[in-house]
Amino acid sequence: MEDNKERLQKVMASCGVASRRKCEEIISSGRVKVNGKVVVELGTKVGKKDIIEVDGKVLFKQEHVYYVLNKPTGYLTTVSDDLGRRTVMDLLDPETKKTRVFPIGRLDYDTSGVLLLTNDGDLSYRLTKSQKEVEKEYQVRVDGILTQEAVTKLIKGVLIDGVMTKRAKVEIMEIDRKNNSSLFKITITEGRNRQVRKMCETVGYEVKKLKRVSFGGVTLDGLSVGEYRPLKPHEIKKLYSL
After folding, report:
1. Contact 195/207 with Cβ under 8 angstroms?
2. What is the chain's pLDDT, residue by residue, as a tens digit (242 residues)?
3. Of the listed 50, 55, 81, 108, which one is catalytic?
4. Closest to 24 (Cα-Cα) out of 6, 16, 36, 12
């Protein structure tokens, strides 16, 4: 029955090919066959009996895995890089890579901290592309003494790239007058490109150090820089409940 079928990109994502958005690009580029025929239409639906091939390899449903990585600075958040630069995948052991995990969302090259990885395309979509508001908490070190006026603006929202940011939570952790710097926590529910850095620049502060300490309630939990661990069952359950 047609009702039992799902969109091709969703099935591919659930099989661990890539995120749903990336799967759409793969389909559009003509790299996917369904029952031996090339398919480029994103609205295509498939059922359990359909045979799906990507780059000539038949897809099989994979067991889903979930990890949190303490990302160092100096690594790109991507599965591969055409220029040969270091990516977060270089931090994973060969066995983990066999599960075809990919990052959920992105962290900038010069940003460290919590990065989730999975082969579960549905969860990735829920946390990054849907309208759900997922809290992401950062520790930020900026040049200068953070004023209450600036804090208020960050909380209420500022204009970046022509669009107002949603309300944020801000907590000042340290004011270092000797070195003219401030350390604070900010929690946002969006995932726009370089959002925290741009927010700080808008209120007059340059970010010197940025670290994500929580994503949807998942923390580093004692991980050293560059280390990763499987998510605990209650962490996975919480992410799916968001």
Report:
1. no
2. 456 788 999 888 878 788 888 899 999 999 999 999 999 999 899 988 899 999 999 887 778 999 999 999 999 999 999 999 999 999 999 999 988 899 999 999 999 999 999 998 889 888 987 678 899 999 999 999 999 999 999 999 999 999 999 999 999 999 999 999 999 999 999 989 999 999 999 999 999 999 999 999 999 988 999 999 999 999 999 999 98
3. 108
4. 12
By residue count, the chain amounts to 242
Active site (annotated) includes residue 93: no
Give dist(CA 234, CA 40) in Å, integer: 38
All structural domains of the chain, each given as residue ranges with its CATH number in brackets, are 2-58 (3.10.290.10), 66-131+218-241 (3.30.70.580), 136-215 (3.30.70.1560)
pTM, 2 dp: 0.80
